[in-house]
Write the structure tokens for this entry.
Amino acid sequence: MRVFLTGATGFIGSAIIPKLKAAGHEVLGLARNDVNVAKLEAVGVAVHRGDVTAPETLAAGAAACDATIHCAFIHDFSQFVENIAIDRRAVEAMLAALEGSGKRFVLTSGVLMVDAGREATEGDAASRDGPGAARGATEAVVEDFAARGVQTAIVRLPQVHDTEKQGLVTYTIRTARETGVSAYVGDGSNRWAAAHVDDVATLYRLVLEKGQAGARYHAVGESGVAMRDIAEAIGRRLGLPTVSIPPEQAMEHFGFVGLFALRDAPVSSRLTREQLGWFPAGPGLIADLQGLQLADA
């Protein structure tokens, strides 16, 4: 297949490229500037110039290919709601260009968009309120197009990590360095799901090749890692004390991450593993935090 990949030079997109190429797929990577063009050309990827803020450019890339994997997102959390709106317009434009084509479209979402009150499963719809609601609405748009001639699928990401980046945990590392303490909220027993970036990239390939139309998939290697364990691993690696802070100080201490710092959000990937034969085998989150590359932390 010829695959249009947005976010192709990002943390996850750049890990997906070698998985697709090794399986014999051709990749058309989105690039918004000359720096990204050079990165893609260096790994032998064809380039499509465009930007998520110009939806028509993404629609053209999607229409030119057999399948689309949408990983791009503007990670400026000071403009989170605005960036979700930008993302939704881009998704709507690509899907409109694919309507009735029978082509595959894979959306990237997040497991924190689900607020199940228990271990979340692939059968759980995105939250209708709370911090996950706005991006969860994009999932609904994608699911609607499953009945309009597009083979849509949704990949929900946990905290995706290696020794350089760790999803939202990256921001807690930054906060620890700025404040001089590695903090968790309350007793720190609340959990975040996690997965190694190499395993996540493999899952995208499997969803592209074998995913069911209209399905949701969870890219989860570890169902839940306790926030206290995360904070202690960060503290050990940075040589900082680990402390508990009260819930009312979470937003002040963590900034936007405080929205999720109290969430106990374990997530199952049982159905994903069974349906796609996905077997995550990468290092766990704590292991990667212990090997954290301090120069980039």
Summary: Residues 80-98 form the longest helix (19 residues). The chain has eleven helices and twelve strands. Residues 72 and 131 are 19 Å apart (CA to CA). The mean pLDDT is 94.
